[in-house]
Amino acid sequence: MTNPLPYQDTKPVGAADFYFAINATFRFIRETLGVAALHAYWGDLGREYMGLVSQRWKQGGLPAVAEYWRAFFAAEPGADVEVTITHGSSESGISAAEAMPSHQVNRENASLVVLNVKTCPAIRHLREGKRIIDPGFCQHCYYVSEAAAQAAGLTVRIKGGNGSCRQIFCFSGAEESPQNMEDIEKAS
Amino acid sequence: MIGCYDFCGHYEWTFAWLQRQGGNDLVQKYWAQAVGGDSQRHAAELIKKKAFVGMAEYWTHSLAEEAAGYVATAADDIFRIDMHECPSKGFLLRNGLEHYHDYCDHCIGWIGPVMKDAGFHVHHEHNHCGKCWWEFRRINDPSCASTEGKVAGQNDVRLHADWATHNQPLDVFRNAVDASKKNQPTELL
User: What is the pTM of this model?
Assistant: First the structure.
């Protein structure tokens, strides 16, 4: 079976201190080039660096999306994330409506991948390291994932942030409205 | 979300993205300010406070977490690292990732300014294939780079057959404090 992650390391989980560098990179780009450039950076990351991920999502559909995120969070130290697929009235024990109430998605018939991020590994480690978290940190999840998803005919909506959130992926057209950026909390 | 498991992949991609925005000057500013001055400020604080002992503490933690294959050699007047299997360059090589022309420059790009600020200078070489060596000495120590094996014995990466047999030329830094000091004649202190 193909590893859902396009790039593999020799160790099973990543080095958590790299979250410091991710946070510092966002701050540097925002302070040096501006917020618009930071959004562009995230979008380019999703389209370019994650190009192989998009290809797999396009070929494998929502099951590939779920497999990717399960493997992804298994390799992130300290993550506590539940990944489920719902098909309309649900095969996962929860309905789409229960999974993501009032979350800008047509919940009646849509198939969804739901990431229930109980503990965000990055926010957790940044707090443990007593780092000043870039306030827009949680927005990167939307900009990066939306760019990667669009290339696969998918879209994402996110609610919450600052340590825990819910993210849903569905086919483009199943969403009821654009992402409301105010649904994504500032990180601190 | 972007994560730490494949961090070296998007980190290296970021160098190329920044170069498109503002050239190599912006990339070097990123290494010095974002990496050396922000992300790795715990390293800077340790080295400023504890000198060679701080270097040992920092790299013992970080290189263990990254699963590096390396040997550190410490003495009263020097801290030396022989990197035999760089975990981040190794990740890029194994996965065929190369967006920026010299990923290895990022280390001197952030370590150089940190060392300068803490009162040390750097002798360094890398072979672009996951092997490199470093020597850190106090800024007022006029010593040249050590001869092969003198400090690290058989652990000196330069003594190993695969050090300089690749097609890639070695990059050499002497008394360097940033990535711009590549392959320049030795400067007198």
Answer: 0.93
